[in-house]
Design a protein that fits this description.
Number of strands: 8
Strand content: 25-35%
Radius of gyration: 27 Å
CATH class of one domain: Mainly Beta
Shape: elongated
Oligomer: single chain
Number of helices: 0
Distance between the termini: 82 Å
CATH architecture of one domain: Sandwich
Length: 133
């Protein structure tokens, strides 16, 4: 409510409706190598897992993990989607938005994988069985 004071010093109270807009927050999956620290900015903080729907960071919010729901680098569930949960508290709000995301634990950092058809000669290779070419 707002109290309005007029020039003649009379007052009146007016109820002003306030439109509250909750931003659309989307989750992004991450992965971590078993036993290694999660890289800074790539899954080490809860805020790394969540963005606004337009892709920008949620700069005006506090985003802590729910107790016991943060990524665990020593997890033995290799290759599975593991759910993590965070509270997103938009500045000025008292009730957090609870969101989930996922991460995977892998045994090693993925290497480059190259595929080719069998029995295909590459330019400048005259003998496909000669490893020196």
């Amino acid at each position: 409510t707002v109290t309005v004071t007029y020039q003649d010093v009379t007052t009146s109270t007016v109820t002003v409706p306030v439109k509250h807009v909750i931003p659309e927050i989307v989750a992004h999956s991450h992965y971590t190598v078993q036993g290694q620290d999660v890289p800074a900015g790539n899954g080490s903080r809860a805020s790394d897992y969540f963005n606004l729907s337009n892709g920008s960071d949620i700069a005006y919010a506090t985003i802590p993990w729910v107790s016991g729901q943060a990524p665990n680098i020593d997890n033995t569930r290799i290759g599975e989607d593991i759910t993590v949960t965070a509270h997103i508290l938009i500045d000025g709000e008292t009730t957090p938005i609870t969101k989930t995301a996922t991460y995977k634990v892998v045994r090693t950092v993925p290497k480059h994988v190259f595929e080719t058809a069998r029995s295909v000669l590459y330019p400048c290779v005259s003998d496909m069985y000669d490893a020196k070419q």
